[in-house]
Specification:
Length: 322
């Protein structure tokens, strides 16, 4: 009898999902570090054709959750990115029509270093971190995603925000030629997609700019090449494919607030105590979720990040500032 002496991380090839590869690559790196075993990486990455360039290995700070990751396939196939259509599978189908290189970000408003920056000049791969965050959409579904990127605060500080700057405003690419949803006659959105944060929210350690997920460059449908991730707020605050950052004194008008201000507020903190006018926010479906196993769970205030962010809202009536 042939006994294959394969290490624990060597899954049979047909069992190899992108998240298994990713997890094994991670645990392999950790154990390799611990044992200083100079063994080469297994050929698993080549075995599963996961698109996107692999990013360097990264530190994973403590604020990462250890909850089960949402499978890669769900993260990249079930999306909201109205620039490419309103169906959940539209972004995966059509976001490839957007070119993300070269990419520039215009920085302006109340800051010492305004300008138009090439993306490569804003980011240093050696500084990438990994953050495993819960993402809770206002529509009451959620995921757990391993992001790669940089803390938002560090990047913003390099532009030397003025003390008069109380808000940071973000804008997504507006290019109807590349974004078919922007050509749609049925769209109720006044493009570009806009979002914003109070400066103290933007400087919170959890606020993150993602350039990748599952250890690889962001797929376009997830907001390549640069997207915001603010995990204690409903998903619509996490604006994708950012081309503009502005520091300003007044609170910006944001896309969903402009569309339906009685339903979507500027703050949009995840809050099971404040229902959406048309549905409850007390529970959420954790993906993957099916008709037979919807995988409902209780929604937690600030999406479970209260320890890090509740001080930002001290004394505020969160029913009024939803
Ligand atoms: N530019 C832009 N950013 C966007 C959206 C969008 O339609 N356009 N949708 C938002 C919503 S509602 C959610 S829930 C998240 C979804 O991110 P994901 O597709 O990576 O899961 O992106 C947010 N960012
Ligand atoms: Mo959302």
């Amino acid at each position: 009898m042939l006994i294959k002496n394969s290490p624990a991380w060597a899954l049979p090839e047909n069992d190899v999902t992108p998240e298994a590869i990713y997890l094994n690559r991670r645990s392999f790196m950790v154990s390799a570090l611990a044992a200083s075993a100079g063994v080469a990486l297994p050929g698993l990455l080549a075995a599963a054709s996961v698109p996107g360039k692999e990013l360097p290995s990264m530190s994973r700070p403590e604020m990462s959750t250890s909850e089960k990751l949402t499978p890669y396939e769900d993260v990249v196939r079930y999306n909201n990115f109205y620039e490419f259509g309103t169906g959940k599978d539209d972004p995966a189908r059509y976001a490839g029509e957007m070119s993300v290189s070269p990419w520039t970000v215009k920085v302006d408003g109340a800051c010492g270093r305004p300008g138009t920056y090439n993306l490569e000049d804003l980011l240093q791969p050696s500084q990438y971190e990994e953050r495993i965050y819960r993402l809770r959409c206002v529509e009451a579904w959620s995921m757990v995603i391993p992001w790669v990127g940089v803390p938002l605060a560090g990047l913003l500080k390099r532009f030397e925000p003025a003390s008069s700057a109380r808000y940071v405003y973000f804008e997504t690419l507006h290019d109807p030629e590349q974004m078919r949803g922007q050509r749609s006659l049925f769209s109720t959105i006044d493009w570009p997609y806009r979002e914003g944060l109070r400066v103290d929210e933007a400087m919170n350690e959890l606020a993150f700019l993602a350039v990748g997920l599952y250890g690889r460059e962001l797929p376009n449908q997830n907001g390549a090449p640069l997207r915001l991730v603010v995990p204690w707020k409903y998903g619509f605050k996490s604006i994708k494919s950012i081309v503009r950052i502005r520091f300003q004194e007044e609170r910006p008008k944001t896309t969903w607030e402009l569309i339906a201000p009685q339903e979507y507020g500027f703050y949009a903190n995840v809050n099971p105590e404040v229902d959406h006018p048309r549905w409850s926010q007390k529970r959420e479906r954790r993906l993957p979720s099916g008709l037979l196993s919807p995988n409902w769970r209780e929604t937690v205030k600030f999406n479970g990040y209260g320890e890090q962010v509740s001080h930002l809202y001290k004394g505020m009536d969160l029913e009024k500032f939803y």
